[in-house]
Amino acid sequence: MPGHILQTCPIGIIAEQFVKASAEMGDVGRINNMSPAFGHLRNSATPRCQKGASGGKTLDNGLWHGIIPQRRTGGNGRFGLPFSDFIDWDEAGHDRLIAKVPNGVCNLRLITVTRGGLKTFCASNHQLPIGVFRQNGSQRRCTFQNSLFRDHPASDQNDRLLDWLVDEPALRTVSGNANLCGQGVIDAKTAYLSLFTFAMLMLVTADNLVQMFFGWEGVGVASYLLIGFWYKKDSAHSAAMKAFVVNRVGDFGFALGILAVYALFGSVQFDVIFAQSSVIAATDINFLGYRLPALEVAGILLFIGAMGKSAQLGLHTWLPDAMEGPTPVSALIHAATMVTAGVFMICRLSPMLEYAPFALDVITVIGALTAIFAATVGMTQFDIKRVIAYSTCSQLGYMFFAAGVSAYPAAMFHLTTHAFFKALLFLGAGSVIHALSDEQDLRNMGGIWKKVPVTYAMMWIGSLALAGFPFFAGYYSKDMILEAAYAAQSGVGSMAFWLGCLAAFLTAFYSWRLLIMAFHGAPRASAQVMSHVHESPKVMTLPLLVLAIGAVFAGWLGYELFVGHDMKQFWGASIFILPTNTAMEDAHHVPSWVKLLPIVLASSGVALAVLFYAYWTSMPARIAAIFRPVYFLFYNKWYFDELYDAIFVRPAVRFGAYLWQRGDRDTIDGFGPDGISAFIYRLSGMCSRVQTGFVFHYAFAMLIGVVVLVSWYYLRFKGA
Questions:
Q1: Cα(712)–Cα(707) distance, rounded to whole angstroms?
Q2: Per the count of CB atoms within 10 A, which of 205, 456, 477, 515 is most buried?
Q3: What is the reported pTM?
Q4: What is the SS3 assignment for 512-577?
Q5: Tens digits of per-residue pLDDT, 351-386?
């Protein structure tokens, strides 16, 4: 019996396909989503859905087993079950379901099959099944598969559908390739994350540069796979390729640094390198035709690798684009873990870098410029994940210039506290996106703080820690970095201090700009979106609560161990600082105004953001119009992407096209296979014209041949 398939996309586009009847196979139809076929509707000879002991349905199909929970909805038109946070019944149409899961969490597409009084849906990104819905009069009941889908909604990138349509008296199945559905997809992401974890552990536990490099490349590969997880999106696979290429530029410098270290020390083992660094410091090396201090060259080359991995100015362009990956991935690896690998490497190599003062100055300058650059860009962006990504870039700049002034413990301290509050902000942003039905633009948010109180509170905690307000984690770590930069009493240290203070002001400004635009003011989303705004389920809010504890208490708990009185005992021989570099010790004795200035600037940034975006809302646009060139400079990320496109990308594409056309096509193929085949073709054409079919032509040719042969014989042997 034929039925209709309704597809409802998150953007509201409805496509209708028809299920055609077949006498031979029962109800058989091809369901198309943007043309690729992903399933068939068939009669099942053997029912696989049985009555369970709990009154639910048991499912045994080789992929799922066990009781499927059933619950009735309440009077609000929303499913009263765990997935109610992801699915709403369309009260207006009464014929379809509406997906409201944000991009990066689930990005659901909704397939509704209507057959009599039965509605079966598959909510998915590329058709991952999550349940079966049945309407019987005024009662609505929904059955879901096991906790795999309740806890981890994911996608099947292979456009395969596996779902079950229960009807009376027979079971009908919508089936595709079972082994490519459900668990297999989740296993793919799990495999990538496991690979990343393994590579990161290899990196941090390495006792030599080669093992560190292997772990370094491993996290790069995992990053590439996870950024491009939604590979059917052009922006996702472009971002993955960009991250891969930019990081390979930095990794090339890292590889050269390893070779330089091996040439100098004859080993890549850390204990050998550290033991000989004081002696090698007086050695020169021939690099690019110049005699240069050996450790300075090696240190800068190694730092280039750190620049790529930790998104420092010049090799930073990949990090904001990396937000195309799933939001939890962005939080866990691109904000809290992987990007800090560069900072870890610099601190790990402190016994060598301490004898390379110029390399440390370079690290300080690049870190300070990165901190202010990312802060200026972050305050003009509207994508909520990109704002936090640029915040990550800015905070990494703090860590680097701390290491550059020999305040390695302060850098590691901020690395630790930053992991808590930045992961909190990223996951909080994911919760906001989830609540607003896949919306990421701050200009389309607002007016939701009462509807998502837990997420709102968590974002406040993360922002307070990021801005460095007293008693939050960032207050202890970031302020210590600024105090150490001031205490360094050097030109680059002073520059880093003042740029860091300005970045602290801008950080507070764009943090509260994000909070106000996302949660406060009049709602700017559509009425339909606002009607579905709700708090995230516990699977999303519980991690926020755990991270919030770290964002509040990590600084207070770790202060004495990381940078306080117990610092030397805690770090032991893992960090080495020359006795002449006293920035860490002097940081505890800086003037009071140095300690108070970051707090004053952060408070000023918050006040300015509240004034501009809560009360004087026309002022940001007016300021942007007055300072239009500066605004567009910041909004367009200082035109780094355009600059690199003009200097590297387009010339490389043109050069590649020239080599392809002139080298490959015209030369290699022209004189090789294509040329030989063309010559043979022309030769055969000429020979074919000789074959006329007339006997007298062949006789004439034979006569010519005899004459030639006789002439040759006479001329050859006439003298004999």
A1: 9
A2: 477
A3: 0.72
A4: HHHHHHHHCCCCCCCHHHHHCCCCCCHHHHHHHHHHHHHHHHHHHHHHHHHCCCCHHHHHCCCCCC
A5: 999 999 999 999 999 999 999 999 999 999 999 999
